[in-house]
Amino acid sequence: MTAPTLTDFLAAPGTALADGPLAMIFAEDETEIDSTLRHHLDLGFKSVLFFAPDAFAAAPDVTTEQMVHRIRFDAAGGEDPIDAVNAVAAAAPGLWMYYCFNAEYLFYPFCETRSVGELLAFHTEERRDAMLAYVIDLYAPDLDRHADAVSLEEAQLDRSGYYALGRPDPDNHNQPRERQLDFFGGLRWRFEEHIPANRRKIDRVALFRAQPGVILRADHTFSDEEYNTYACPWHNNLTAAIASFRTAKALKRNPGSTFDIPTFTWHNSVPFEWHSRQLLDLGLMEPGQWF
Asked: Under CATH, which architecture does the 1-102 domain have?
C-alpha cells in the first residue's frame, strides 16, 4: 500500500499526534532502517513517523508496529526534512518531538533503564523546552569489508578531539551568545577539508517541545534562542548524544573524498559499546541534576 504524503498525513493523523514524545526518522538511503526504527521504539517514543520513499524496504515487524506511521518522502529527491519537522511541529503544538536520520541512534543518560518520556518529563520540570544533542560519528574500522563505513558490530568512535567555540551573535557586534556554543569534533573535524564550513558543527537541538511560531532552521538550531542553549542560567541541564554513521557514509559515497580516505581509524579510535555510560565517561553528554 502506498504511504501518504506528509500533507495527506497531517490532514488525518489519527492518534499519531495525540501524545508525545514523538520521533521523526528520515531515511536518506536504505542503510540500517530497521535498526534505527527499533532503537527508537525501544526508547519509548509514543509515535514514530518514518519518512521514506515507497521503494525503501523495512522489516514487516517494524512496519506493522502500530506506533510506526510511514510517510512518503524523498529527501534525496529534494524534499527538505527541516520543512517536514516544522510542518509536524506546527500541527502538534505542545508535544515533545525528536528528529534524526537513518543509521542514527539516540542515547541519553541512563537510557538503558529510563524511557525517553521520563527524560523529557524531568527536563520539563526544569522549565526547559529543548535539549541539546551532540552528533557523535560512528564508523567501521575496515573499509574494505564495509565499503559504506557502516558496521553495528564493529562500530568505532573518537574518544577525544572534541571542542567548542563561542557562538557569535550578529545582532550584538558578534559578541558570544549567552549559554550557546558551537561544538566540533569527530570526522567532520578530522576530515574538514571535505566538509563545507557550514556543516562542520556537531551540535543539534534534536529534542524540543513544539511551540507556535518557533521554527527549526537549516543549521539545526531554532528561531527561539533559548532553545539553542546548553543549560539554564542556574545549573547544568541534561544533554543527549546521537551516535551516527551519517558523516562516515557521506564521506565514503562522495567521489571527492572516498579515494582520499583509506580508513577512518586513528590512534584515538575506540570500539563503541552501545551504552550511555561510555558516552558519559567520555564527556559526550551531561546528566545535569538527573540521578
From this structure: 3-Layer(aba) Sandwich (3.40)
